Amino acid sequence: MIIGKIGFAQNPFITHMYTADPSARVYNDTLYVYPSHDPDNAKWFDMIDWHVYSTTDMKNWTDHGVALDIKDIKWAEKYAWAPDCIKENGKYYFYYPTDQYHIGVAVSDKSTGPFVDPLGKPLISMDTKGVVCNRDFIDPAVFIDDDKQAYLYMGQLVVNAIKLNKDMVSYDGEVHLLEGTDDFFEASWMHKYKEKYYLSYVGTSGEIKYCMSDNPLGPFEYKGVILEKMNSGTNHHSIVDYKGQWYMFYHNSDLYFKNHPEVEVKFGWGHEGSPHPFRRSICFDKLFYNEDGTIQKVIPTK
């Protein structure tokens, strides 16, 4: 169901609801964003469903409504957190975390869903053999290489990666722990540019950082910061090429502070006296590379 046209060329670009953790994907001539959805009255990260947004001009956006709801996943109890989605085999595969413990997968014939659970169980969990995670097992990010091998990255504090099978809903049984991801905290994202693999992520510092490798499973070499800390305390991003221009998508709390002028703006979660609104808003800005392939720091715009 198409909810309707919304948004303009400004940050945040979705303003009729709170959104976070944007995973951007391009199918044909359309860019889609798969974010999480913060409730209007959020008191914690208590999200319950996922919407899908699309654009063909980076100015006007369509909200396609709910693509998947936590209540439709029989084995999951709570927390519709940061997802990702990719097209393969003529279908769309939606990867998502629940319960701070599981990574699931759902499938649809359409980029906007609705998505359906094909397994009736998680794809992989914190207690799966080979997984190393002593915090939240979250933030799946999927990547398909030029040879059509698909990888899924996930976890907190340690980057866990698996090689997905051709069916995209199972894997070869081995879990790879990636090396060279300095200060990794969460929100891994993989992309490729000029035969180099870029693993970007949120550091424990709150900045978005990145490292590079000649192999999608590393080892990686740390390169630096792409995006400064945001006033949301948390962040979660994606990087995508659309119509010849690279973009970084991310989130902040600008919409919350605009909607609540009575709240004093203080910077980020953990700062003394600063509220944590748990109500975030997704943004994007252009991303550029240097001649040596390193990434220039992204400058946030309003």
Automatic annotation (TrEMBL):
Q: Which UniProt keywords apply?
A: Carbohydrate metabolism, Glycosidase, Hydrolase, Polysaccharide degradation, Xylan degradation
Provide the transmembrane region boundaries: none
Q: What is this protein called?
A: Family 43 glycosylhydrolase
Could you tell me which Pfam families the record lists for this protein? Glyco_hydro_43
Work out whether the entry's keyword set contains Hydrolase. Answer: yes
Task: Please name the source species.
Answer: Paralabilibaculum antarcticum
Protein's UniProt keywords contain Cytoplasm: no
Give the CDD domains listed for this entry: GH43_AXH_like
What is the similarity comment for this entry?
Belongs to the glycosyl hydrolase 43 family.
Source domain of life: Bacteria
